[in-house]
Structures are given as structure tokens and as C-alpha cells.
Specification:
It contains 15 helices and 14 strands. By secondary structure, it is α/β, with parallel strands linked by helices. The N and C termini lie far apart (93 Å).
Length: 468
Amino acid sequence: MTGTKPEVGIDELRVKIAETTVEIIRLAGRRNNLAREVGRLKAIESIPIEDDAVEDSLLREVTEECDRAGVDRSAGLKMLALLLAESKKAQGIQALQSGPSPMSVFAKAVELQRGGVKLIRLDVGEPDFRPPRAVLNACSGAMFGFKTHYTEARGIPELLSALRGYLRRKSGFAATEDEIAVTPSGRFAVYASLSAVVSEGDSAIVPEPNWPAYREVLKHLGAKPIVIHGRLEDGWSLSAGEVERAIRPNTKAIILSYPNNPTGKVISQEAFREVVQVADDRGLTVVSDEIYNEYSSKPCPSVLHTHTAPKKFVMTSSFSKAWAMTGFRIGYVVSSKDIIARVASMTSLVLSSVPEFIQHGAIKALDSDTEVKKNVAVMNDRVEAISRELDRIGSLEYVKPDGAMYFFPRLRKPGLTGGMLAESLLQRGVTVTPGVAFGSYEDFFRISLGQPKEVILEGVRRMGDLLA
């Protein structure tokens, strides 16, 4: 009856909510006590600390209970992620300590150089090429023309138009203006894109070895990286079957990056298409980092190509590698209107926009095909020269890269790890990055081709002398 006084008043309901909240905390404490006992038994019986099958079963139970209880699944998965993290703490399971990262190796090398140590830098993923002169002139002209103001978060219209033309010319992809966003670096493009696709409690598939930032970003977002461990023996290939087996109840995306860092691998168009088909069938978003796409000695598949385009995708790239604009910190994202809006919102929130004068320089970069072709030719020449030199070192094995600017050799000396080799080489004035920076690859290390050919060859010769 309208106007009838409710049987339970708001104050009483608030008391019940408080009691329920406290009971949830009490149950979480009970759960932690049970987890401690599980941890004790695992240690006694030498059982692996993590069991994906058990976790998958719990994921399914939680999502089903969410549906029955009228709780949003994403909220349920966030709560489960928190409970699992607390369980691991209760069991004494610490997050795996990451080994040396490319950036930590970089920082150490820079510190040594500032102290006067001469080094052959085979660690840093930065080409030694100079930016196109037209880019420098455009940036300078824009600054002196006082184009030094805030811009739209997605980028100035002139750059968005230039990017649309570049993508149409390069990939045949006809993007609308609201399907592209300019970002402050390719790294930020990856972070913002993953933030738009996965949430806390979700998971995403990461084929490895790979750039460590993907895994780091996912963990920062509270999402779980599901690693596919690639093998040198398989030529660093990736199969649709591996992807299918890696999918879990909370998997939202797969991250692809070809040519790959650190292996230089480019998978075939057919393999790429098969992986995309699995993603489409299972409703996953394909996040494709195509920063090294120009540096490829064979046709490189892309999510922008009509015959390999997924139903849901995000493509990230940057001006850093092909145009040697690492310090300019400008990248871009291509995706659906909805995801681009989220990426632009994050740019606006954190950094407002990419500096206006840098965007004017980027416009000129997109027309600098001659410089890109020259850079690619030089990098291909380095690959051939370094391959010949590495072939002389009997204690190394590797798969010749199809692109990018790296080699990822494996040591065939028992007891010698990539980290140990890196330390020994440092004493001989050469820097490389240990393989553990890119996944569980202790016997590997990465060689970057970001120096003149003769400099790289000298570094590899010192490597050969050490391993002889």
C-alpha cells in the first residue's frame, strides 16, 4: 500500500550492512588461515606453490555464483583477485623477483659511462640513426612559430589526418579520425591500451620471450599474465593450439608483437591468422604492438591487414624506431572508437597531450620514406654481418632474426647463464641484456644492433674471445 511505513528502517538496514561487511572480513581471515595450512602441507609434500587448474575451477565457481547472487562478474573477479593475493601472502609466496630489466641494465651502463668507462653498448634498444632533418626543421619551426600550447588529447587534426594517410598507404587500413589517438610514447600507448582492455581480476596471454613491459603493465593493473613459453628449438613459433590451451575463464586479451623483441621473430601470415581466429572464437581482444613493423626482412602480419584483422583489436606503435625519434616520446594507437576514447581520456588525465611542436615534427616523419628505407637497409646489413660473426662462436646457438634489431642467442656452456656472461662482458667493456629480462630464459642474452656495424662486431669478437 502506497505510503506504508517500511517494515525495516534505514538505520536497521545500515546496521545489517555493517554486520555483513564485518562478517566478510572475518571470513577472509578464516580463508587466510586455511591458506596457511595449505602452504604448510605444500612445503611438506613438495607440491608446486601455484596450481592453475585449481585456480581455474575457482574462477568458474565464482563467476557462476556471481550470476546466481546478482553480483557483477567483474566485481566478483576483482574480489577473487584480492583474496588470491592475500592467500599467497599467507602461504609465504612472494611475487617472483624480477631479474635485470632492459632499463636497469641501461641505467647501470649510463652510470659507468658517466664515470669515464668506455663501453660497447649492445644492451640498449635504441637505433643510432639520426631523426630525419625534416622532422627537426618542423619541430624547430613549430617552436619558433609558438606552437607550444596544449592540444587535443587525441592529437592535433593535422597529425591524425597524416596518420590516416600513412596507414592507408602502408596497410590499406581506412581509419576514421576517431579510431586513432596520438600518445606520449609507444610505452604509454601499450599501458593505456591494456588499461582499456583488461581490468583487475582479468588475465591476458603473453607469448614469451617478450618485452617485459607487457607483463609489468598487466601486474600493475591487477591482471594476471598467462605466459606461453616459446622455444628456440621451435624457431620461436606460436601456434593456435598453444593459445587455445592458455585461455582461462577470465582471459580478455592476447598480446602479440612482431617482429619480436628480443628474438626478431616474424611468424607467418597463416600462423598469425590462425591465432587471430582463436581470439575471435573466444572473444579476446588482440593487442598488437607493431613498433618494429618497418624493420622486417619478410612480410610482417598486422591486425590492420584485411586478411588477418581480428574482430576486436588494438594496434600500438611509435615513431621511436623507424624514424629514430626515441627521445621525442610520441606514439599512437589504432582501435575502435570506444577504446580510443579511453586511451585519449587517460592521456588527458595524466599528461594533457603530446607537446604541440613534437606533433608537427611527427607529421614530417610520416613522409620521410627515404630515411626509413635507408635505416632498414642498414639494420639488415648489420643482421647479416653479426650472423656471420656469431656463427664463429661454437658455444652459441640462435635463430636468425626476421626483423627488429636484436639477436637472442643461447649459451651452450653448462653452468654459464646469460646474467653471468653479462657480468663478465661488462669487465671487458661490452654490455648485453640477460635473457631473464624477457622471461624464463636464464641461458640466453640479448644483443642489440643499435651501434655502427664495426662497433657491434668488435663487441661480438670480445664475446667470442671470452667464450673460447
